[in-house]
Amino acid sequence: MATFVHAILAVREVINNGDGTGQVPGVSIVTAFVLVLVSIAVLVIYVHHIGQALRVSALIELVGKETRKLLDRKYPDRGPALMPEPGSAPVVRAKESGVVTKIGSDDLVEEARRTGCRLELVPALGEFVPAGAPLFRVHGEPMGLDESRLHDALILALEPTLDEDVAYGVRLLVDIAERSLSDSPFQDPTTAVQAIDRLHDILRQLARRPFPDGRHRDEAGEVRLVVPAMTWDAYIHLAFDEIRLAGAGSPQVSRRLKAALTDLRSIAPPERVAILDHQLDLLVVATETAMDDERDAEMALREDREGIGAAAALDPR
């Protein structure tokens, strides 16, 4: 509004003498242009802010924060302080709540090396940490450990992100598949199959790659930081358990799951095959339980990367 008013007032100062001469208030015109650009920038920032504020995670945090404030007013006595268990490692507690979205491993290793201790991160990447909950366990006898450096090395956010958390990407794909099957296995199995396509691709890329053990060492080879790490079995459970339970009654979903698991089994190292066999067994049981007719169950347990596609022509009649 201020930009509009300024522009209107500036136009009044433009003088045309009718003979090709006149006067243009240069400073006012330039100021109007600058104000227009500033207004556009403010509008973009405002729209972005509104979009962020209306996200589910932001609304949940708003309700949670207001409830915590109310709790402090209604129950101001925080009770006795937590006492460490005898013989347990000292604990560094979280100052605020949030989801661990970034772990500054190098900074944590350096601080542990400097003080001569080993740090154990309690929450995993992508895990929610309540305020006051254990953040680190400190092993050894540190000399002058700076807890502020430990807090600064972690980023706690409102929700997980895809910056470093592969498991969160898998979780999002699983959520998409589950939503498409939420009311019935036949609600939208095609969307579920598309999500399984991406899960299959991700797990295929992971199948033969070594997984870090979560141990971080200093230059001397001493373990200074231990972080919870995802394993192959954990990724398989995350990717398939809930989709199997939600979609076992859909031939498209069960056939696509069977195709994905069988393919992964064909390329996975021997030590990673057991969990795939376990998933295949569970898929058979879930599908047979969901199907009333044995012939339907048999059809639903045939491999088909399209769900029900060209491979269906090979089904016995």
Structure described in brief:
The chain has 317 residues and is an alpha+beta fold.
Give me some keywords for this one.
317 residues, alpha+beta, Aldehyde Oxidoreductase, domain 3, five-stranded mixed beta sheet, 10 strands
The count of strands amounts to 10
Write the element-wise H/E pattern from the N-terminal end onward.
HEEHHEEHEEEHEHHEEHHHH
Number of domains: 3
Q: In terms of per-residue confidence, which ranges show pLDDT below 50 for 5 or more consecutive residues?
A: none
Distance between the termini: 73 Å
Give the radius of gyration: 29 Å
- Estimate the helix proportion, in percent: 40-55%
Report the portion of residues in β strands.
Answer: 5-15%
Mean pLDDT: 87
- The side-by-side strand order for the widest beta sheet comes to 3-7-5-10-9
The biggest sheet, with number of strands, parallel, antiparallel or mixed sense and barrel status, is: 5 strands, mixed
Describe the structure.
The protein has helices at 2-12, 26-53, 56-74, 105-115, 147-152, 166-180, 189-206, 232-247, 251-267, 273-290, 294-300, and strands spanning 15-16, 22-23, 91-93, 98-103, 117-121, 128-129, 134-140, 154-157, 215-217, 223-226. The chain has 317 residues and is of the alpha+beta class. The longest helix has 28 residues, at 26-53. Helix 1 (2-12) runs antiparallel to helix 2, helix 7 (189-206) packs parallel to helix 9 and helix 9 crosses helix 11 (294-300). The strands form three sheets. A five-stranded mixed sheet has the order 3-7-5-10-9, with helices on one face. Helix content is 52%, strand content 12%.
